[in-house]
Amino acid sequence: MLAFYFLLLASAYSFLLDNPQGNGGTTITNQYLTVSKFYEEMKLQQADTANMRQETLKLRHDTDTSLTLLTSQLQQKFDLLDKKLAEIARHNDSNSDFINLEQKYIQLEQKYSNLEQNYITQGHELAMLKNKSCLLEKNIEDLQHLGSIKPLHEITTLQQVVKSISAQTSTLNMKMRAATIMNNQTFIHLQQQIDNSTEQVAMTAHPSSNYNKAGIIKFDNVAFSVGIKNLTAFKNSGKFVCEKEGLYILSVKIYSNTNGAHFYISLNGNTISYTKVSYNSNHPSAMENTSTAVLTVQLRLNDSVWVFYPRAAHVAGIAWSTFTIVKIK
């Protein structure tokens, strides 16, 4: 509502303008400028003023930028000029250094000439000394030859005596070495015999359970052993393999309830003992008996000994049946 009154007031009030005079002296009617028109003109002038202010600021900014660029270019020119002046100064210094070097080179040439002259002089003196040395050596050789003529025969005799003594000494050394080697071998042999005679090898084993079959009897439950390394092979195969040569006692005890049972002892596949456990014609089916075989054998390294049944028969396990082997020498 207030806006409406304002517009109405603006349209109602106005400004009276001066009347311009006509050419013929006639008077032109009065002209009026409304308030709204006045405000519009004022806004246009304010806009023009703002544009002029922006253009002025832009012009000032462009002017500052141009001055900065010109200042930078001038500074670069000044720096380049300073570098050129410095190069000219260094060039002058280099010329001065070159002159100094040239003077030093001339001085070195003079010193080299002096050294070369001294070297030539010393060469002549050295040649003279060599000639004198050769003369002295020749005189010494002549004197030595004259002094060695008389004792030459004695020196030859002494040399022959020395050679004879050296030959005798060499022969004696060889004999002593041979005797030492023989003594060492004898000592080693005696030591081996002592070791072999004092080595302890023994074993007692039993079957771990009862069984009834033919073939090698396995005494796989070792109750005692000494001096035997490969017990595992003996338990698995039933064969005792000699690890230390010597004289051994073998003892085999078998408890069986089979009538007519008998066992053999084999050495490397050759039967060395036959033993019958029991036999009774009146009781052919079953009977219980124990039989023992004891013998002495000379075993060598890797000899094999085992006990076997030629046919199926009962073997009592645990301590009822025993295989014992002892090295006595």
From TrEMBL:
Read off the Pfam families from this record.
Answer: C1q
Task: Give the SUPFAM superfamilies listed for this entry.
Answer: TNF-like (SSF49842)
| InterPro entries the UniProt entry points to | C1q_dom, Tumour_necrosis_fac-like_dom
The C1q domain, residue ranges: 207-311
Name of the protein in question: C1q domain-containing protein
This chain's source organism reads Mytilus galloprovincialis (Mediterranean mussel)
